[in-house]
Amino acid sequence: MWAPLLLSLQVTVAATLLIICIGGGLAVWLARREPRGRALIETAIHLPLVLPPSVVGYYLLIVLGRRGPVSTWLEWDLLFSWPAAVIAATVVGMPLMFQASRAAIASVNPDLEQVARTLGASELGVLWRVTLPLARRGVIAGVVLSATRALGEFGATLMVAGNIPGRTQTLPLAIYDAVQSNDTDLANAMVLLMTAVGFVSLWWVRRFDIGPRPQRSGTPV
Amino acid sequence: MFSLIGRSYLPVLAIAGLLACSPAEERASDPLLLVSAASSLSRVLQQIRVDFETTTADRVVFNFGSSGSLTQQIRHGATVDVFASASQQYLDELRHEGHLADTGLTLHGRLVVWTPPDEEPVATVDELTALRFRRIALAHTKLAPYGRAAIEALQSSHVLTQVEPRLVQAPDVLTALRYAESGSADAALTALSLVGDTDGRWYTVPADLHLKVQLGIAVATGSPRAQQARRFVDHLSTPAAVSIFEANGLFLTTAQTAL
Amino acid sequence: MSARLLVRARRRLDSFQLDVDFEAGSETFVLFGASGAGKSSTLNAIAGLLHPDEGEITLDGEMLFRRELGGARVNLATRQRGVGYVFQNYALFPHLNAADNIGFAVRRQPRAAQQVEKMLERMHLSHLGKHYPHELSGGQQQRVAIARALAHRPRLLLLDEPFAALDQPLKERLQVELLQLRRELDLVVLYVTHNLDDAFAMGDRIAVLQEGRVLQRGRPEDVLAEPADSDVAQIMGIRNIFHARVTARSPEGVQFDWDGITLQAGDEASVDTGEWATLYIVPEEVKIIYPDVPLSDTVSHNVVDAEVNGYQRAATHHSLRAKVSNGAIVETRFAPSAYSELDLKAGAPLRLALRPAGIRVLRQRRGKRR
Predict the structure, then answer these.
(1) Contact C200/C225 with Cβ under 8 angstroms?
(2) What is the DSSP string of C263-287?
């Protein structure tokens, strides 16, 4: 019960970091620019939201498999390893991060970014000191949503990471196993644990920084 | 002041710690034998593992899933040592494609009519026509071997047309059993290998009413631990293992042992 | 006055072609025009927020931007241009208090806190440093925005309609403060407005913009007195613009037929007999004739009958609109003390003298009107 939990947390943290970097990066990029094919890119990012996990899992199986690009070009054999679970969790969690943070960043008044540039801020400085603080609610909501989605990821993970206890068996997979083998006590315990972890993480992040501080109540964002 | 930056280093430390103390670090020279196995075999294989691990120094870990997904994983290059399929058909396909060695064995299972403890058990397949069986669960009639066998048994007993409107198809044989156990169905056509530790009662369908339900276990050609893999598969046809199989409703058909 | 800022920029925009060319020294230079005339685009080009297709921008001898055939390209990043920019809506950072807004650019510099403190004091904001923008009044927000733009000691300050949202007394006070600041810090100030009073209050010189082009440059009073053409007159809100046909030319001037009234103009305009021309009758040069006083030299020409149409009092001048015999409405402007003994209520008959020196022929722009 503790090994799957620990592995789940490890996978979730790694996936969330990837989601923040890639999903956040894409959000920053596409919130302000209109590159050719933007609609296509956004649709592709959102696709895992509507595709069944079995389809996402199958695509990942092809990409990460022996004849896929990751194996042939990078010579990484990722199937049945915990990084495969991270990749699955990243792909299904990313759309939530992208959507929430892109909308939040796009809603920041562009004049504020422009004025920051005239005040000597670099592009990174603009992002860090103006855009992100003003978009923080949406960005944090995106991180939380995508992290919880990553924590609960099941279908695609089962496909590419397998269901190997102590190695790739995350909490959702362990629960599936326990239900399958009719181990009701273990299943109940893990279901409660999963619920508790989900609840605590949502609650903790809420406390952490959603909602205005007292002295800036009503800050227009 | 800038809420996203500082506040506390605690989360950062926690993340670093989590990633460092990975439970999955012993992958490189992993001595564990990886057996991809159909979920329906989980109970019996766990028992055999205990027996196997008392006789050798090898250690086994299972990857349970549906035979179809496991087949796809092996086909796309997932590294496994042994594949235990609930369907002989998948095994033959993989063997044909060169993913599996000849070393292996074939088992067959028995179909049962399972009824909940508060229900009068049946003594023949015909009795399923009784009106108290409003819903009868069975496995996927095309993909799952036990599902196909169930249809054949109903057909041989000349009750298929009568019972057909009441059949509820589950994705696999275990789920079919769960339907009946939970009361969603009044009976289940399921596998003898699954019902051993249930509260209900069951009637074993005579073997001549359906084609044999064949299961197969074989060594993967891509196994990096081929020697241990063969040892494990050989162990499956020892008297001790065969008796565990039989206690779980599975019977040895043939065994192709390593030379 | 030597030029410190040189701007020459062309840029294809959605609705028009920006094509501006002007220079400014240590002064307040006003960009005047209706909205959509290219004023803000010009500021953006100077700040580096908009890249001209072609042109050159230099500030105190430093090349900020250059892009033209054959020349090496220069395009200094906005953050390196040393330009202070105050946006129309102030664009204060809502997540930072007044002091942090002002300190945004100098945060990393030594003695940043003292600098901010000094700037707060200079702008009469000392007690408001900890307040967030939404807790400040419009005028306070405006002062924070200007303080923020000046904190990193720019050489050039760009102001986009900076006082549009403020009421008159507050506006006037801030304008005076701004002019003081400009002198103290020896800034070049570019001031964008569509309000003629602001342009006069602030501008040492003014450039009139329309559809991306500078139509006329000069001291505001000169532009008002001598609009280069009918478009400038229209943009400047000048009344007394009429059409008339040239009937004769003589060494003293040109004679016009203005819908039945014969007018003598002192302007030596290059118009030929028979042509139509646009006339601007300067309101200060329209005199009311006292009924019982003999005609003097100043009112001996272009005497027309009229009746009072309207009367308006302002602090600095009064203005009277009169309907002349051909039906046109002519405005005249005079000191509040003048004509006090005359009866000028609506409908009262009177006679006007339109002094030839006050009748200007405006050039007509050709082929640009849609």
Answers:
(1) no
(2) EEE-------TT-EEEEEE-GGGEE
User: Hey, which bits of C4-145 come out as E strands?
Assistant: 5-12, 17-24, 28-32, 54-59, 62-67, 74-75, 83-86
pLDDT of residue B1: 39
SS3 label, residue B69: helix
Neighbours of chain A (3+ CB pairs under 8 A): B, C
State the residue for tokens 């700040």: C47
Residue C180 CB coordination number (10 Å): 10
Residues of A in contact with C95 (CB under 8 A): 133-134, 216, 219, 221
The beta-strand segments (E) located in B18-99 are 32-38, 59-65, 82-85
B34 touches chain A (CB under 8 A): yes
Residue from B40, B16, B27, B59 nearest B217 by CA: B40
pLDDT digits (tens, 9 = 90+) for C25-51: 999 999 999 888 899 999 999 999 999
Of B4, B75, B174, the CB nearest to A136: B4
A85 touches chain C (CB under 8 A): no
| Backbone Cα Rg of chain C | 25
Beta strands in chain B (DSSP E): 32-38, 59-65, 82-85, 100-109, 111-115, 136-138, 167-169, 187-191, 201-204, 213-220, 250-256
Element (H, E) at A123: helix A123-126
Cα distance from N-terminal residue to C-terminal residue, chain B: 73
Does residue C358 carry a pLDDT above 70? yes
Exposed, middle or buried: residue B156 (CB in 10 Å: 0-12, 13-18, 19+)? middle
Dump the DSSP string for C111-139. THHHHHHHHHHHTT-GGGTT--GGGS-HH
Q: What is the pLDDT of residue A177?
A: 84
pLDDT at position B204, please?
A: 94
User: What is the torsional sign of CA B248, B251, B256, B258?
Assistant: positive
Look at chain B and count its residues: 259
Adjacent-strand bridge partners of B100: B220
**C280-296: per-residue pLDDT in tens?**
888 888 988 887 777 77
Closest approach of A117 to chain C, Cα-based (Å):
5
> Quick one: DSSP state of residue C2?
-
Q: What is the pLDDT of residue A220?
A: 45
Distance between CA atoms of B254 and B13, rounded to whole angstroms? 56
pLDDT, tens digit, 9 for 90 and up, residues B63-106: 998 888 899 999 998 899 999 998 888 999 999 999 999 888 99
Tell whether pTM > 0.95: no
C-alpha dist (Å) from residue A214 to A217, B11, C2, C239:
6, 24, 53, 56
Q: What's the pLDDT tens digit per position in C100-159?
A: 999 998 888 888 889 899 989 888 899 999 999 999 998 899 999 999 999 989 999 999
Q: What is the ipTM of this complex?
A: 0.78
Q: Would you give the DSSP letter of residue C363? A: B
Question: What is the pLDDT, as a whole number, of residue C336?
Answer: 86
Residues of B in contact with A82 (CB under 8 A): 22, 24
Hey, are the CB atoms on C79 and A119 less than 8 Å from each other? yes
What is the nearest CA distance from A96 to chain B, expressed in angstroms? Answer: 19
The Cα–Cα gap between B174 and B188 comes to 10
**Residue B61 in contact with partner chain A when CB distance is under 8 A:** yes
A with B: how many residue pairs have Cβ under 8 Å apart?
106
Residue C143 phi/psi, 5-degree rounding, is -70, -35
Per the prediction, chain C carries an average pLDDT of 88
Tell me the one-letter amino acid at B29: S
Work out the mean pLDDT of chain B and round it to a whole number: 86
CB contact under 8 A, A168 and B24: yes
According to DSSP, the residues that pair with A84 across neighbouring strands are none
Q: What percent of chain B has pLDDT over 90?
A: 58
Full strand arrangement of the beta sheet holding C253-258: C261-265, C253-258, C241-250, C276-281, C359-362
